[in-house]
Amino acid sequence: MSTYKKIEGRIRIAFLGCGLIAGKHAGRLNKFAEIDLYFASRDESKAKEYADKYKGKGIFSSYTAAIQSPDVSVVFICTPPDSHLALSIEAMTAGKHVICEKPAFLHAADFDRVEKLRLDNGVQLFIAENYFYKPALKELREVLSGEPIGDLKFLFFNAAKTQQVSSWRLDPGTAGGGALFEGGIHWINCLSNLGLTLQSVTGFQPSTNGKPERSMQVVATYEEGPIGTLLYSWEVNTVFKGLRISRIFGTKGSILFESNGLYIFVRGKKWKLIFPGIADISGAKAMLTDFMNALRTGEDGAFNLQMARRDLELIEQAYQTSIIQTK
Questions:
Q1: Does the model's pTM come out above 0.90?
Q2: Residue 1: is its pLDDT beyond 60?
């Protein structure tokens, strides 16, 4: 028996917020069958622009109008993080299913408020964490499950790059935090979903001249014994603005992989070169496919709220334990 209200027929999705990420999701959803898109913005001209570009069925000049519309069955929240909780509550109270961009909320404890509301109203709440669905992460899990490099000792994830920071990301109150919170949460998700049991994390901030932080090193401990390290930055020069190498070390070999997921090279009991595929390298298509299927079946998505909450708890732990290097 399904847990939530199923959607039969066309899935009618209203985007709240018409920024870059909304456009990317809308472009992908346009390729799905039996889905109608609507766009809501406080700037009505922006909503009309997106509706024209992405074959929208209608527009709204306020988020509340979209949430209350009988034509809408799902709202896709693509606004800055500080508005996610209030909009999710408003939408679920109105009986609408919700897809919310990451980071979901400003605090892990906020999940307590939405969980009861979700169950009381029989609606779904999905957090758009596409890295969980990355082909490379799936391949790494499968490779590691076979213990091809012996006992794991060290995991090193290089996620440093140069990224322009503007608009609401410059305001910690609106963004909810710095680089690790807004973008690094993707990589915390990767550290959490390798088939190992992540116990705790500690944050280290290199010297900085201001806030929010744009660089963070995270050290993770696993119940199985290995130590993981994540380097996340928006201010480090990289080849092609993001081509990086990560590695996993064991007692009988190592795994080298391009951080984005272009390839994986296993050097252990057997040598193996894996190309996970670039058609959906970010995992976004697989994520949306899973969400649409869950809306029709009434079941949870593969990436559930407990996982999303855990990611946010780890981010909070990294900030709370962070050691800031001073010049």
A1: yes
A2: no
